[in-house]
Amino acid sequence: MQDDMPFEIIDGDTTRGLVLLADHATNKLPPEYGSLGLPASAFERHIAYDIGIEKLTQRLAQRLGVPAVMSRFSRLLIDPNRGEDDPTLIMKISDGAIISGNHPITPEESDARLNRFHRPYHRAVSQTIARVGEESGKAPLVISLHSYTPAWKGVPRSWHAAVLWDGDPRAVHPLIQALQAPGDVMIGNNEPYDGALRGDTMYRHCMETGLAHALLEVRQDLISDDDGVAAWEARLAPILEEINARAELHVVKRYPSRTGDYAFGNQLQGDNDEQT
Questions:
Q1: What are the chain's domains?
Q2: Fewer CB within 10 Å of terminal CB in the chain, N or C?
């Protein structure tokens, strides 16, 4: 992988029909952006990336033998998990940190970041999903991996992990049930925040296209070191293996979004759609 690439693709067995994504895998910035006016300590915080997710994604992709796509730039530069018209696409303030390198920002610079980072990442996601669909002969299951802070504004978050989603429950319900089954962790269902976000990665690549999917968040303190990553790799791998084996998750079916009608119409597909 080239150092200046805005994404990394981990190769895997495309015939498995599973794709892993990591929108906020790293805290990297190209040298010409300096530190965006922030202290070095800001890049060790959640405002810069999803702590622990790069290693967890790498290990799960390797263990499951499936492809993954990871971003290679900090969300402080531009957030790949936001639509292009989202006001939080390029943040000016994040959890109390003023990002002077993002304000003021010209339309030309916004477009430059879209063209250099955001759009190439999403093209890589689209192309990987398409390749998996073609080579597996079925609609891919997409799992997006994220992490969240153990507390927010002084309030502890008791959930060990969470599954976020919009209107498609197909992968969500079995994933939550499997995570809860051992009885040793608390799993959030659209907690600590809601998974319905118009234009985000899951909306764009799965809700609009009818692919079964889920966004899985793990609390950052649980995967902040190698032991924690290994423990969650061991917990998640057999669950994702079992869910991916379900034929009903490899059928195209569009569900209504809680964010409103789709831009190209809201015709929804039925239960007997052919596999793609």
A1: 7-250 (3.40.630.40)
A2: N
Side-chain-side CA neighbours of 160 within 13 Å: the count stands at 16
Q: How far apart are CA 16 and CA 135, in angstroms?
A: 9
Interval 136-170: pLDDT, tens: 999 999 999 999 999 987 889 999 999 999 999 99
- The answer to whether 103 and 40 have CB atoms below 8 angstroms apart is no
Q: What is the pLDDT of residues 84-123, one digit of tens each?
A: 999 999 999 988 889 999 999 999 999 999 999 999 999 9
In sequence order, what are the residues at sequence separation of 6 or more whose Cβ sits closer than 8 angstroms to the Cβ of residue 196?
165, 166, 167, 190, 257, 258, 259
CA dist 141 and 213 (Å) reads 6
Establish whether the linkage from the previous residue to 104 is cis, with ω within 30° of 0. Answer: yes
**What CA–CA distance (Å, rounded) separates 79 from 113?**
10
> Nearest 5°: phi and psi at 270?
-90, -175
Interatomic CA distance for residues 156 and 162, integer angstroms: 14
Residue 241 C-alpha from the chain's centroid: 18
Amino acid at 30: P
Q: What share of the chain is helix, strand, coil (3-state, %, to 5)?
A: 35, 15, 50
Gap between the Cα atoms of 230 and 237, Å rounded = 10
139-155: b or e for each residue (b if 16 or more CB lie within 10 Å)? bbbbbbbbbbbbeeeee
